[in-house]
Design a protein that fits this description.
By secondary structure, the protein is an alpha+beta fold. It has 1 helix and 4 strands, in the order βαβββ. The strands form 2 sheets. It has a two-stranded parallel ribbon with strand order 1-2. Strands 3-4 form a two-stranded antiparallel sheet.
Length: about 70
């Protein structure tokens, strides 16, 4: 299943969504949708463990300790 389209579960159908180093493989323009889908299917919460990437995304944004910036 392509998680950039929709997660094939009903809303609030799992207790926790757990993701490890997966978001860096999602195209920048689809990150918001993927995160929204994770929140939609989770009853209790979403746990994300991600790697820090030092390069700019395809959309020219990057994340710092202060938040997201346009580059």
């Amino acid at each position: 299943s392509d998680v950039t389209q929709s997660i094939p579960f009903q809303s609030k159908s799992v207790d926790v969504v757990f993701s490890v180093a997966a978001l860096l493989y999602i195209p920048g323009g689809k990150i918001h949708h993927v995160l929204s889908e994770m929140v939609r299917v989770a009853r209790k919460g979403v746990v994300l463990i991600e790697q820090e990437v030092d390069t700019l995304s395809a959309e020219g944004s990057f994340v710092t300790d202060e938040g997201t910036n346009s580059g």
